[in-house]
Amino acid sequence: MERGFLIALQHAGIEVARINPRQARDFAKSLGQLAKTDRADAAVLRDLANVLARHEKRSCYLAPQPDEQREILKDLMVRRRQLVEMRVAEKHRLEVARKTMARSILSSVKFLDKQIAALDKEIDDHINDHFDGMRELLTSVKGVGPVTTVALMAALPELGRLDRRAISKLVGVAPLSSDSGKHRGQRHVWGGRAPVRAVLYMAALVTCRRNPVIRAFYERLLAAGKPKKVALVACMRKLLTILNAMVRDNRAWDVLKGQITATSA
């Protein structure tokens, strides 16, 4: 419902900022507005919109114009995820089902398998028609597979359009400061786009083993005493930086790897 409303507003020529509910609530608290009702929320959103409209970086908060083909790809990926979740649930039921129910569950699993296979073909055809060039770029990196590629194309349209710091914060793999005066708090990553972060995590696990540039970076961090989880998140950030630069410059991995190794660590 939100996506449809946002796109309708943009088609009507109205600029829209899509705000995380937590940010809107924090803004309300900063004004001393602790009560929460529909009327109070509407007033807070109005005040927040007025602040963003006058902000010097106003354009950063505006939702990007919709790309119809990317929206279609996103819808296909959402449906695929729903089908996969249903198949997983049925397989879990099968593990404890009696024989009288197993036949019905197996029939359901086979049906879902066919649906997912048909959807995979539809996704592949759509990418061939509209995103084939980007797919070739992303899959040229050893360890970046089809699932990671499709997820990035569908859920991260900003890839190649932002600098490495901005794209890392957007995804949620940039360490955020927690300092006050002379105190230097521990950096943590949080927020961002969970679906993109999930596929980047799996891609980083593979690239840490198979990609010589990422593997060397990972081993260097471990040798410096970094915990494995911290080193892995750093590899996720480095991989995202490389992919972002590749899409920005429209250059494949073999051309970029020396340059990236020298500049993005």
Automatic annotation (TrEMBL):
Domain named Transposase IS116/IS110/IS902 C-terminal: residues: 136-219
Domain Transposase IS110-like N-terminal: 8-95
UniProt cross-references to InterPro entries, sorted A to Z: Transp_IS110-like_N, Transpos_IS110, Transposase_20
Superkingdom of the source species: Bacteria
Protein name per Swiss-Prot or TrEMBL: Transposase
Organism: Roseateles terrae
